[in-house]
Amino acid sequence: MMKLIKRPLSLCILAVVILLLFISIKKVFSPDIGFHLHAGQWMIEHGEILKTNLFTYPLLDKLYIDLHWLYQICIYSIFSIHSYSGLIVFNSTIIVIALAILWYRVKQESPSREYLLPFFILLFALSQSFEIRPHVFSWIFLSIQLILIRDALKGHKQSIYLTFIVQVIWINCHSLAILGPIVFLIYFIGNYIETKKLNYLFGLIFLNSIIACLINPWFEEGLLFPIKQFGLIQTNNNLQNLYIGEFQSLFTETNFKEDLLSYGGLFPFAPSFYMYLFNLLALISLPRIIINRRYIEMLLLVSFSYIGILAVKNFGFQFFIASPIIIRYLPIPNFIRNKFNMQVGKKPTINLVSLNKSLNYYFITLSIVSLLFILSVINGGYYIASKQPFTFGLGADNNLLPITSSRFIANNQLEGKCINFLGFGGQLSFELDKPVFADGRLELMGDFFNSYLKSFEPNMFPKICDFYQANIAIFPYIKTGMYGNWWISILQNKQDWKLVYFDQLSVIYTKRNDYPNIPELTEEMILKNEFKKPFSEQEILELVNNKVKQNYFSAFFNSLSFNHQYQNMSDQNKAIFCFTSGFNKAALNFSARAIEKSTVKSKIVYENLSQYFKEIGNFNLSKKMLQAAK
Question: Model pTM?
Answer without folding.
Answer: 0.89
